[in-house]
Amino acid sequence: MNAPTSRGDAAARFRPRAMLRPRVLLWTAVAVVAFGFLLALEIAARHYGVRGPLTNQVREVVFAPKSGPLLYAGMALMLVVLTWRQRFIALAAAIGIDAVFWLVRWALDAKMMAGNGALWVLLAHAVIALTRRTGRERVLLLKGVGLGLLLVAGRKTGDTWLLITMKTQPLVLDQYVAAADQALGSPSLLVGRLVGATGPVGAHILDWVYVQLGVAAVAVALYQLRTVMTERRFPAHHIVRTFLVIGLLGPAVYMVFPVVGPVYAYGAEGGQWALAHLWPNSAPTITAPQPFLFDEVTPRNCMPSLHTAWATAIFIHSRRGPLALRLAGTFWLIATLGATLGFGYHYGVDIVAGVVFTLTIETALRSLARGWDRQGARLTAYGSAVFLALLLSYRFLSVEMSENPFVFGPLVILSMISVLYGYLRTTRQWDREPTPVQLPAPRREPQPELV
Questions:
Q1: What is the pTM of this model?
Q2: Which residue ranges of the chain lie beneath pLDDT 70?
Q3: Which of 4, 113, 165, 369 could join 300 in a cystine, given CB atoms 3.0 to 4.6 angstroms apart?
Q4: Long-range CB contacts for residues 284-287, cutoff 8 Å, separation at least 24
């Protein structure tokens, strides 16, 4: 004879579903905000007569994608939630679809590029999640699909942001940054000459590292997400979150601090718009910096250096991996720094700002994942204040910085080191704290009914 069921047992039975609802609402709100942001960028791009991120993404369902490897990287992030059998089926389907597209484009003599198959597989799993999965499994698969699509959308969003900076910011502030960079000894000059001395081989390696930064990030992400298939949940924090937030917030700084870089402002790449053709042989003499007009085809994407910011994130998140991953993260950071400075894309002060930018964002995201406390809030506020102080000093104290390099140079470096020290000290203390174990709610014994 079955024991009577109490109301407490019924509540315990439905508790997981009730706990799931706030998370579903949260992710729904995030998706709505993200779509609204993409829609705003789409409208802004259309205002300037070009396609925006949404249109470009939809076109890649049929037309040749801009970056096939990125689409497969996004699919790889989605595959972490599937079983090995489902992964092989999804990969085979993506390759098969791309083979069909390849043959059709070859017959029509159209542009050849793979990646459509990966996008089709991503969209197909979104449909599967909505129609064939329920409860936690549906949420998990939608998270995987969303993570993959966000990686791809981040690239489209970045391209649109760069377009907006070119169209809305005709004046650039390179004279201020070049003057402030003299406090650090104008490191791009030295590194530029060193890269030139390595010949085409060294330049080719650095260029490949610079372009394929997302590949290294996905490698780290796949290691961090390796247990999702068995645990059926994502970790509270991983590198993809940091990458996306950096890409979301960084271009906003471009809008208030537009800089094109030394190879354009003072090098041959700037053409007739360059103030002089000095880079990488000598630093410009600047006594009264001022904004100057530049062309509408060069992005204003120097301050801060987001490539440095992303490479720093790769370095940080690879520290807990195996030796090979840690060595790869170190190599990617060093090579990215060599490329950003050696190709003349950035000034030294851009690099410092990029490191502080990443450490601050990483602190905020880790605090959000584990629960805000006084240490996390204080370090986030401090990193934000240092970042703002750096930008203000580059803009309003650039002449003083160039005239007193032995004072301002160490101050700039020490400000970055102070944020790094605070990050290491805080995160190590967090790591030493015991992780609370979430035990299931105790089941209440049925109470005998009173007659």
A1: 0.84
A2: 1-31, 434-451
A3: 165
A4: 284/175, 284/178, 286/175, 286/178, 286/179, 286/398, 286/399, 286/402, 287/399
